[in-house]
Amino acid sequence: MTSLKRERDVDLDDDDEEEVVVKVGRGRATEDRRSRHCPYLDTINRSVLDFDFEKLCSISLSHINVYACLICGKYFQGRGLKSHAYTHSVQFTHHVFLNLHTLKFYCLPDNYEIIDSSLEDITYVLKPTFTKQHISALDKQGKLYRAYDGTTYLPGIVGLNNIKANDYANVVLQAFSNVPPLRNYFLEEENYRDIRRPPGDIMFLLVQRFGELMRKLWNPRNFKAHVSPHEMLQAVVLCSKKNFQITKQGDAVDFMTWFLNALHGALGGTKKKPTILTKAFQGSMRIFSKKLPHPDLTTEEKEALLLTDEYQEQMSESTFLFLTLDLPTAPLYKDEKEQLIIPQVPLFNILSKFNGNTEKEYKTYKENFLKRFQLTKLPPYLIFCIKRFTKNNFFVEKNPTIVHFPITNLDLKEYLTEEAQLTEKRTAYDLIANVVHDGKPSEGACRIHVLHHGTGKWYEMQDLQVIDILPQMITLSEAYIQIWKRKETADANSHTGA
After folding, report:
1. Nearest-angstrom CA–CA distance, 461 and 58
2. pTM: predicted TM-score of the whole model, two decimal places
């Protein structure tokens, strides 16, 4: 009896176990429970299945050997005797479980593996996969797909859940998920699966989670027409050492800057070693910088200093992943009815910062510089950050100026150096993403306009809400971050939603 008891108490938690053999006494037949047809498959409730959250046991909070109950959607650890999943199956008569790591299905408490093709839709939602043919066709069609809950959606144009105050991160993630080369790279896990990182390096978690989120956003077989970025944002909190949080409003430009650099580094990129991010977004510019004498000096002292080598104009070359555009100071004048008028400025006015002639003063703690900029290389995808916020010691102030911009055919040729104008054959861009900040600096919210390449239509996304929008309405918003796609020669006259 002792040996029988020992065999029955074995905790069957090994994920790689192929066969379970239970002996029920001398002379009795041995029962092979390797795989059987399960009579409980019709109890599976797909409407409660949600794999967007962290894969933790709901009781032990462990992430090791976790199973999802396919009847109630909760996560439990283990499947052997006395394990949380086993206890749950006995207590609530929930019998069908999925191992979230191996993607194998089991029937508990009998503890046999279920092999049934009708369950493939569940494993696909947990881990979507994309072929090269599927990826290459993403921008060529605009087919609506029906989710299990009955709603229809366009893959890629999918709302992201706002857990508490993470809309600033959602809009950046949605913008990047609609940049084709970036999207295509992360949809195929093979592209970055074998990248070697130093032991203990947690930053690669960002790459894995961003890839998982990208595949969920573009999944044509979703159970619901929205996605929760919970696991992605937990990786952000961890990797940014809590600089960016789910529960506290952040700045979309600050987050984008950190995310671009962190992702580039996690992919093994350096200043000399490119990654998919630098290939998509990196351009270069020429910076002319001239040191200014201290304003408290006399005129004679200033003139003497300006003749020295230290105060002569210096030229340097620099790369960039985005361009910051400065808004003019907003005038506070009113109309006849004493209503405040929101100032407006054409995009070309604030782009003049990069024409090589416009000078701007930059102050550091000790010194002042006069700088001017000129572009030397344009990237395939160009990011603009419109500087709406100024910070001082007491508060953050927002500039509400409306920027007027074209949706298509933004030509940047005049902002290139003469040499670059000869080498850069394609200088026209179309807008593909527009992040908007609404409201006050500390209490405001973010939303995004994105172009669906397959249909040529524009959509507005704010958390879970997704609506289509006319392109002319986009220019009336307080644009904050924009992504522009360089026009190919062949599709210069293509329809892009304008």
Report:
1. 32
2. 0.87
